[in-house]
Design brief:
- There is one protein chain.
- The chain is of the alpha/beta class and 296 residues long.
- It folds into three domains: 6-99 and 190-220, 3-Layer(aba) Sandwich (D-Maltodextrin-Binding Protein, domain 2); 101-188, Periplasmic binding protein-like II (D-Maltodextrin-Binding Protein, domain 2); 223-290, Alpha-Beta Plaits (2-Layer Sandwich), CATH 3.30.70.120.
- The chain is built from nine helices and 15 strands.
- Strands 2-3-1-4-11-5 form a six-stranded mixed beta sheet, sandwiched between helices. A five-stranded mixed beta sheet has the order 8-7-9-6-10.
- Helix 5 (129-138) links the parallel strand 7 and strand 8 (144-147).
- The chain is flat, with a radius of gyration of 24 Å.
- The protein starts with 5 loop residues before the first strand and ends in a 6-residue tail after the last strand.
- The chain binds phosphoribosyl ATP and zinc ion (ZN).
- Residues 53-55 line the site of zinc ion.
- Zinc ion binds next to loops.
- One of its GO terms (molecular function) is magnesium ion binding.
- Residues 53-215 form the ATP phosphoribosyltransferase catalytic domain.
- Pfam families: HisG, HisG_C.
- It catalyses: 1-(5-phospho-beta-D-ribosyl)-ATP + diphosphate = 5-phospho-alpha-D-ribose 1-diphosphate + ATP.
Length: 296
């Protein structure tokens, strides 16, 4: 790999793989579509990708083999809590809006509990022993941590543990294993991160452009372009209904004195109840369109 190309470590096969690749494609990188290879080169920009297991990504950044990485915040936090040396190695650049989940304490469904003190002197199975240890310390709980690398949710059923500390997304896996979520310890999502050491000037230039593009892609994902017709005198009410919007563009409507066409970019999700509120102040012919690219 050339030293003049920025190297990014991504998960090869798993929940973050497709979204990570898709994000870089949306940033304009021309990447080969096959995922069989460990190494990708962008054809049109000096960026190389290394596809590996997510757990290896922080070490690749720490060792200077890659410059940037995408992992779940849960993985990064577990690594950085190991010791201070690790935590000073990494800098989180930004959350990426995918891979959302939470690290939670869960217990058997039929278990009665009043407070988190239920965990005193219990056995808790997890693949995140460091984060669990930190949480227990903070809550003044003494418990036995049963460290296992996968299928944590089956531990209570096998009488290996009284509770688990694991990732939850829809909650289906917990329900299938007769468990219920007791306490959310950490909300997580995929994050873009780098080593704290400085890039050389070539890499810095490549990084600055990439960073701007990623920010634009994320901003665009969150934004919607909204078009509708409305009574001219309802504009101020409409602005109150659409928070997170820039100044609307107001255009005359052919053959109508009191109605106008309104075009506006919303930086927030647009829900059905927002559209219903618009209708109540007289808006009609409402269109909500996705925004593909956005640059301030
Ligand atoms: O092979 P490699 O080591 O790279 O992959 P992996 O098996 O370690 O990770 P992977 O692909 O399962 O997850 C990668 C990242 O995705 C995690 O570190 C999280 O940041 C994020 N993520 C988002 C999740 C989930 N959602 C998730 N639901 N990671 C795991 N799960 C598992 C969870 O452990 C449990 O077994 O899914 C099950 C729960 O899901 P629900 O939907 O039933 O609640
Ligand atoms: Zn992993």
């Amino acid at each position: 790999m050339s030293n003049l190309r920025l190297k990014i470590a991504l998960q090869k096969k798993g929940r973050l793989s497709d979204d990570s690749i898709e994000l870089l494609r949306r940033c304009g990188l021309k990447l080969l579509s096959s995922k069989s290879s460990l190494f990708y080169s962008a054809e049109n920009y000096p960026i190389d990708l290394l596809l590996v297991r997510d757990d290896d990504i922080p070490t690749l950044i720490q060792d200077g083999i890659c410059d940037l990485g995408i992992v779940g915040d849960n993985v990064l936090k577990e690594k950085t809590q190991v010791n201070l040396e690790f935590s000073s190695c990494f800098q989180t650049i930004m959350p990426l809006n995918f891979g959302r989940c939470r690290l939670s304490i869960a217990v058997p469904k039929d278990q009665e509990y009043q407070t988190i003190d239920f965990l005193q002197n219990k056995r808790i199975a997890t693949s995140y022993p460091i984060l669990l240890q930190q949480f227990l310390k903070q809550e003044n709980i003494t418990a036995q941590i049963v460290s296992i690398s996968g299928s944590v949710e089956i531990a209570p059923g096998l009488n290996m543990a009284d509770a688990i500390f694991d990732l939850v997304s829809t909650g289906r896996t917990l329900a299938e294993n007769n468990l219920k979520e007791l306490y959310v310890v950490l909300e997580s999502q995929a994050v873009f991160f780098k080593s704290t050491s400085e890039f050389n000037s070539e890499k810095k230039k490549i990084y600055d452009v990439l960073l701007k593009r990623i920010q634009s892609v994320i901003k665009a994902q969150e934004s919607k372009y909204i078009l509708f017709h409305a009574p001219r005198d309802a504009i101020s009410k409409i602005r109150e209904i659409l928070p997170g919007c820039e100044s609307p563009t107001i255009l005359p409507l052919e053959g109508s004195e009191d109605k106008v066409a309104v075009h506006v970019v919303s930086r927030e999700s647009v829900f059905w109840n927002t559209l219903e509120k618009l209708q109540t102040v007289g808006a009609s012919a409402i269109l909500v369109l996705p925004v593909e690219k956005m640059m301030a």
